[in-house]
């Protein structure tokens, strides 16, 4: 016996967002995978040095940043749900909530960078060279994500536009940024 979807189910079943956004996200994930692989190779070659440098990272800040980004993703998911239901004003507020999470993340990461640099942990240490490059590239992605969320808000404010694919694509990008942070957090802060 084969199961077939009812016509009303078929309309709702689709890959969210734009196909081009999925291709871009896949490409970005491949690039970051390269960063992570190179980091792991160097970590295995210089285990003691990396472990000693890693001890200076504040895991609590990493946890707070992780919670901030995961919460911002939750806001963005709720915004997509609201937008699909035609509740644009609610969706806009939720996107702002997600964007606020991104701003808080950037501020806390900036604070952490300044504290590490003032403590003398610069690019002369191999671990921190990786740390600044990987988290710096991630910060650029957060900034781009904030611009993307701004585009989503613009889309939702214009009754003539309000395309679900734009809202979904913005959410896809934001979730990629969050996923990348979870991996960065695990590699740099947690893994010993």
Please give a structural write-up.
This protein has 192 residues and is an all-alpha fold. It has helices spanning 7-12, 19-45, 47-54, 59-84, 88-118, 126-157, 164-190. 29% of the residues are buried.
Could you give a short description of this structure?
The protein has 192 residues and is mostly helical. It has helices at 7-12, 19-45, 47-54, 59-84, 88-118, 126-157, 164-190.
Q: What distance lies between the first and last C-alpha atoms, to the nearest angstrom?
A: 51 Å
Tell me, briefly, the overall form: elongated
Biggest pleated-sheet summary:
none
Radius of gyration: 19 Å
By DSSP (H or I, 4+ residues per run), the number of helices equals 7
| Low-confidence sequence ranges | 1-6
Number of strands: 0
Quaternary structure classification: single chain
Q: Percent range for helical residues? A: over 70%
* Overall residue-averaged pLDDT value: 90
What is the structural class? mainly alpha
Order of SSEs = HHHHHHH
Fraction of residues in β-strands: under 5%
Highlighted features:
192 residues, mainly alpha, 82% helix, disordered N terminus
Secondary-structure map:
Blueprint: H1 7-12, H2 19-45, H3 47-54, H4 59-84, H5 88-118, H6 126-157, H7 164-190
Helix pairs in contact: 2-3, 2-7, 4-5, 4-7, 5-6, 6-7
């Amino acid at each position: 016996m084969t199961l077939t979807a009812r016509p009303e189910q078929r309309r709702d079943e689709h890959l969210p967002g734009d196909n081009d956004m999925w291709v871009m996200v896949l490409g970005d994930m491949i690039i970051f995978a390269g960063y992570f692989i190179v980091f792991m190779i160097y970590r295995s070659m210089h285990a003691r040095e990396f472990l000693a440098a890693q001890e200076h990272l504040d895991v609590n800040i990493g946890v707070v940043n992780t919670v901030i980004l995961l919460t911002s993703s939750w806001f963005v998911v709720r915004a997509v749900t609201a937008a699909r239901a035609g509740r644009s004003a609610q969706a806009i507020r939720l996107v702002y909530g997600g964007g606020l999470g991104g701003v808080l993340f950037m501020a806390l990461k900036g604070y952490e960078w300044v504290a590490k640099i003032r403590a003398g942990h610069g690019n002369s240490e191999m671990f921190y060279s990786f740390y600044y490059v990987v988290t710096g590239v991630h910060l650029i992605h957060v900034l781009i994500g904030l611009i993307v969320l701004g585009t989503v808000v613009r889309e939702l404010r214009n009754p003539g536009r309000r395309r679900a694919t734009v809202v979904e694509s913005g959410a896809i990008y934001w979730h990629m940024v969050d996923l990348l942070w979870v991996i960065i957090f695990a590699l740099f802060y947690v893994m010993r």
